[in-house]
Amino acid sequence: VPESMDDPHGYFQNNEIGTFRFAHAIAGMANPPLLIYASSPEVYGVPVRVPMSEDHPLHPVTVYAATKAASEMHCMALHRWWGHPVVVIRNFNTFGPHQNIDGHAAVLVTFARRALLGEPLQLENGGHQTRDFMFVEDAVDAYVRVIEKGKVLAGSTFNIGTGQETSIREVAQTVVSLSKSASEIVDVPGRPADLPALCADASRIRAVTGWVPRTPFEDGVRRTLEWLRAIDQ
Fold this sequence. Notes:
This protein is an alpha/beta fold. The protein has one domain: NAD(P)-binding Rossmann-like Domain (Rossmann fold, 3-Layer(aba) Sandwich), CATH 3.40.50. The chain is built from eight helices and nine strands. It has a three-stranded parallel sheet with strand order 1-2-7, sandwiched between helices. A two-stranded parallel ribbon has the order 3-6. Strand 1, helix 3 and strand 2 form a beta-alpha-beta unit. The longest helix has 20 residues. It is globular and about 60 Å long. The relative contact order is 0.18.
């Protein structure tokens, strides 16, 4: 997310133009397959209510969020105008093994990596921001269920998340505890557009597919730490 403010043109080209071209290439096929667009809760912006349902207003506050919202609209326009099968899935904070650990990596895996190295874990804005952390296997299960339902879901938008808020400070404390790290948790200045909360109301996808996330947060953190230890050996 912060990287998009440093490289807005790159994010526009990759996320928005890239999605537009890909979606239209699929739309040009004789029998277009189901297109599932992986979006983000960042499109909601500062929450009006928590948890957030799919009809929550879209108020993106970063270039990244704006490109995701625009890409959703491009994909849905293809469905509404030509009837092409499109589903949008808004993934809340997904984490787990094989996650990107380079550059602007997600907060949980960044904390886990630093904890294993004994480095400080930095909290912005006091770490009071809350997020909805979902283990990767649960996210994959949601996608599989949508794929199995197929084109009957065309035109739908779904949130996937646990519905549980965890503060960034709690994430840091959990990582330090489970890793038995000597890392310090330190406060640093925060980003001005950091959203105070993101938490999913995933009742829509549960009603349609029966999907329920099953991995407790601490179990997911343990498995992520095990993976990081293994790749560092």
